[in-house]
């Protein structure tokens, strides 16, 4: 009987140490790209309207990329924003993305956004959204 009890206790101890510690819950965050962007400076840039939300007390950064096929060549631009408001509420942001290749034009473009959020001492989260966006004047 003692041998079985010792075996059960040993097995339980091994299983308990093999299980990972309780993970820290992810920081609340969300990013939403609006369906329509605005061309700026004859297509040199695009203003991308979006909504972001991150947990109060966290710090957030945002990366946005716009890619468009312009007559068989790609117009590509991206923008990194090192600080976004983190209050637990949604905030409207207009991110201006400048083309690195050729001018954007009216029509459909593919847009990606990545919101990185950090809440001290060791919680973080990353949320992404990818979508087609209509570029207009």
TrEMBL record:
Signal peptide feature range: 1-23
Species this chain originates from: Lentzea alba
Organism ancestry: Bacteria, Bacillati, Actinomycetota, Actinomycetes, Pseudonocardiales
Keywords: Signal
Keyword check for Signal: yes
Superkingdom, taxonomy of origin: Bacteria
Protein name as it appears in the record: Neocarzinostatin family protein
């Amino acid at each position: 009987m003692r041998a079985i009890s010792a075996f059960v206790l040993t097995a339980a101890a091994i299983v308990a140490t093999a299980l990972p510690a309780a993970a820290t819950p992810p920081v609340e965050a969300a990013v939403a790209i609006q369906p329509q962007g605005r061309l700026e400076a004859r297509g040199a840039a695009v203003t991308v309207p979006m909504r972001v939300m991150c947990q109060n007390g966290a710090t957030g950064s945002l990366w946005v990329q716009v890619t468009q096929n312009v007559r068989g060549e790609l117009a590509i631009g991206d923008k990194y924003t090192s600080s976004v408001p983190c209050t637990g509420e949604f905030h409207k942001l207009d991110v201006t993305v400048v083309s690195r290749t050729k001018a954007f034009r009216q029509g459909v473009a593919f847009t990606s956004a990545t919101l990185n959020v950090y809440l001290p001492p060791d919680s973080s989260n990353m949320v992404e959204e990818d979508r087609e966006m209509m570029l207009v004047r």
